[in-house]
Amino acid sequence: MASKYLFKEKPLKEIRSHLIEYLGGSVNLIKKPNGLAIINLNQDSKKNAITGKMMVDLYDIVEELECWSTGKSIILKGEKNNFCSGGDLDFVKKINTPEYGYMMSTFMQNILNKFQNLPMLSLALIEGIALGGGAELTVACDFRIITENCQGIGFVHGKMGIIPAWGGINRLIEKIGYTKSLDVLTTGKLYNPNECYQIGLVNDIIPENENSLDYAIDWLEKRTKFEPEIIRSIKKCVRNGQTNPENYKIQREIFAPFWGSQKNKEALLKNIKHKQ
Asked: Which of 252, 174, 276, 187 is nearest to 5 (CA)?
């Protein structure tokens, strides 16, 4: 839909100054003495939908974690038993042009690339629902576990007249392979916990009678028994050679013209991503 290099690259600092103006919600970080960090998405009135300010919060948190030399593991979760319903529609409507879409995509790809390359093991604790950008956040983590009563994970971007913007296509292929990724992306289906497990999208299902955060902490502890430098070195070696930065640039150039297109605007007005 777009010719290559149609959009001018902007410095992240400039994009950050734009995004931080779109308030609502927060992303919070807790670092524990045992090397566990908990990142909490917090806009519970909107199922933790992401605003510009939350994007900036997440960026700052990732930068802080890059300097945490004793960190071993990270849990990414949402407030009030919901993971994340994607982009906050009020925020999205305010930046609904291809140019803004490209900037937002650049910023979030950068954040999640840095997040994915952190030397700690990361786990998405998926409760409630993970839609659109929320689904993309899950695959930026090394592992994913989902509660038994969760509604599911949905790469519903196609329903909104767009494609994944935050690098989620590459990461989904890494997790479940080419053919399954095509199926997930072209159906726009909401996958329930059992379906997620069957296709390899999640690593475990948390029984309904378990405390989800306690379960997640215990699950990670089994994989972080070694010294921090061993854990970090293992992850670095496994990650090495998996990513191609040029792929992300191509994706955001393809994505940006869809952002703010007529079909995208119509989908926003209908709030279609929540309809099955």
From this structure: 252
Q: Shortest CA distance to 171 belongs to which of 101, 257, 244, 84?
A: 244
CATH code where residue 229 lies: 3.90.226.10
Rounded to whole angstroms, how far apart are CA atoms 270 and 52? 22
**Each residue's pLDDT tens digit, 113-165:** 999 999 999 999 999 999 999 999 999 999 999 999 999 999 999 999 999 99
pLDDT in tens, 164-188: 999 999 999 999 999 999 999 999 9
Q: pTM for the full model? A: 0.89
* Number of residues written out for the chain: 276
Segments forming the whole domain that contains residue 253: 12-274
* 3-class SS string, 62-80: HHHHHCCCCCCEEEEEECC
The number of domains in the chain is 1
Q: Which residues of the chain are modeled with pLDDT < 50?
A: 1-3, 5
Cross-strand partners of 78: 41
